[in-house]
């Protein structure tokens, strides 16, 4: 069961046409590390101005500390001005040196990246939470070997902690990042050298684009899944001055999504295998995973079936892998047991639309339980569905539902006062037409 125990208003939501806070592809929008919790979001430079500049914020708190309220630092030396829902913020933490990494404001743009001084995440009590902890906005990664050309066309940065180091993945394009025709690059930050190295282009599109549901690490294994989007030619695609590839809609929209793919790596991203354990690509040898790779596709799903790009994935405590997505306006739980067998089940609760807000999934820390956060799509509800994994097939139960929400939720599980907690980062949708807010809700798990 779940019990809502607190809710925190972080800021007024960005006054924009396109949602830029609480989008599914932020990795991470919220995360816990060493008893502290971190969240990133944009705020209005002036709350009175609609469509005005936005500022990057990172908040932190110690949920079980003597003062569990949020502290927020705001970078006032950078203003986000483009009304584009792709241009979100993602953060990552490197355990080995305690640095916090943040990347922000991209849709086929040159890299925007900041990194903190060492030790900030490992000894948070020793540092006042101010922007002075971070270096300036960079357009390259700290590296002595990565060529600048790799940083010109960035979209969807995702950070992943792996042991003492940190991975960074993002999409780049073919022909100035055509939406629907891109590939994924992978970098590794090493805590002992404090530099990034380029591992390779691990997913390559061929007149299509791989859109990942995420990239996760657990039990010594990296997991990645996603869908492909067929590329449709459009006017201006070969014009280097065209910006139509930055559109928030068509002609390369979700209706062209198809299939569910899966790959994993047991050597920190240097080699990727399919679900049967066969090698798909060795990045060390300059190889990449192509859409027709043997065993890459785990479910054949045709275009116009309603599957969304960049929905959600998670790894459970026993090594099982889980994907949340949708087909024909039904939420679907796709899962791979640790034995390698794949299955899929329909979830109870609200029915999604083909292009409505995306959901989230997270695994319990110490039980065989999953939590799915499902936006209403057809209304402003938010529903949490629990899945028990200790039987032959999962069993599902609606644990909580309420209205007044409009974001794509992000989930985080952590310990507070000796009990397991679930946090949801999202944004509100007030019934009285007052300003939306960026919020974190905390639930006790029993």
For this entry, give a set of tags.
mainly beta, Neuraminidase, four-stranded antiparallel β-sheet, 446 residues, 0% helix, 29 strands
Report on the architecture of this protein:
The chain starts with a strand and ends with a strand. 48% of the residues are buried. The protein has a single domain, classed as Neuraminidase (6 Propeller), CATH 2.120.10. The model has no long low-confidence stretch (mean pLDDT 94). The chain is globular. With 446 residues, it is mainly β. It has no helices and 29 strands. The strands form eight sheets. It has a four-stranded antiparallel β-sheet with strand order 1-29-28-27, with no helix packed on it. A four-stranded antiparallel β-sheet has the order 2-3-4-5, with no helix packed on it. Strands 9-10-11-12 form a four-stranded antiparallel β-sheet, with no helix packed on it. β7 and β8 (113-115) form a beta hairpin. Pfam families: BNR_4.
**Annotated CATH topology:** Neuraminidase
Helix content: under 10%
- The number of domains is 1
Corresponding CATH architecture: 6 Propeller
Instruction: Kindly report how far apart the N and C termini lie.
Output: 5 Å
The average pLDDT score comes to 94
Classified by CATH, the class is Mainly Beta
- Which strand order does the major sheet show? 1-29-28-27
Beta-strand residue fraction = over 45%
Alpha-beta content class: mainly beta
Radius of gyration, in Å, reads 20 Å
Number of helices: 0
Number of strands: 29
Order of helices and strands: EEEEEEEEEEEEEEEEEEEEEEEEEEEEE
What is the overall shape? globular
